[in-house]
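Workshop exercise sheet. Pairs work together: one partner reads the sequence aloud, the other fills in the structure field after running the prediction. Swap roles for the next sheet.
Pair: D.N. / O.F.
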Amino acid sequence: MTLAEYAEFSNYAVASGTLVLALAFLAHLAELLFVRQEAVVPATASVGGASQGSVAVADEDDDEVEPRSAVLSRVGIALTIVATGLLVAGVVTRALASTRVPWGNMYEFGLTGVSIALVVYLVLVRITAIQWIGPLVTGFGLAILGLAWSAYVPAGPLVPALHSYWLVIHVAAVMIAGALFLVGASASLLYLLKERAENKGHVGPILSRVPTIATMDRLAYRTHAVGFVLWTFGALIAGPIWAHYAWGRYWGWDPKEVWAFITWVVYAGYLHARATAGWKGRGAAIIALAGFATFLFSYYGVNIFVPGLHSYAK
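Structure field:
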């Protein structure tokens, strides 16, 4: 294939992946709707010995029929796997079309970042069964892909400042850290929602499906801890080394550098509070969400709204 053909294939793969991810998001939303419906159907009438309105009803062989919400959950995961495969194919062919790593501008940052986030999410689904954050992850991925498409540029060479293998190390570590921050932020948000519902005495069928608040608190802490290590290495070690290679100084308080440091400070405060003061629950979740907000601004807001040495990445 020629470089132009690789670029065209990448565009088709990314567009198809975006569409499939939208279907995955809709499947997860439909799953939530059926969860509510299955919870309110009266469980009085009986069919074949099973309650007609219960989550599962019996068929002719007395085997339980799987509830629609569970089916849609699996459909959402399956579609997410397909979308991830298409997006990864788009990333790889974009790299082949550009003959470089595929994160030299905002479009590529968003595309590669979402692909990595989805891969991390699917791995964690396999390991720890966190499919309950599927609506948040797929919805967030769609939003970032929308921003990426709005900043689309044709495949092309890197600007001179980006020609360094430290770019690969720096951005890869930061993107994986961001994927873990996304998982941690999703768990923290659901923690706050479920805790509030429990305090009111009415959790509801949707929040009843997510794990206990203690489980979500532990998941948030562990993913943030790993993400923090990667962010420290990628943003505050590999990044300055690359800056020295590109601009002749390790640190210059460029807006991107400042916000990367602010993100590090917030997450450091989160982990320090957890380790020394025993902060758990609501306070920790709020700090974690604040950290994710600073990460998003560092990742996108600075490039769009604040001029600096990183403005070439628009």
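Discussion prompt: The CA atoms of residues 166 and 297 lie 23 Å apart. What would you look at next?
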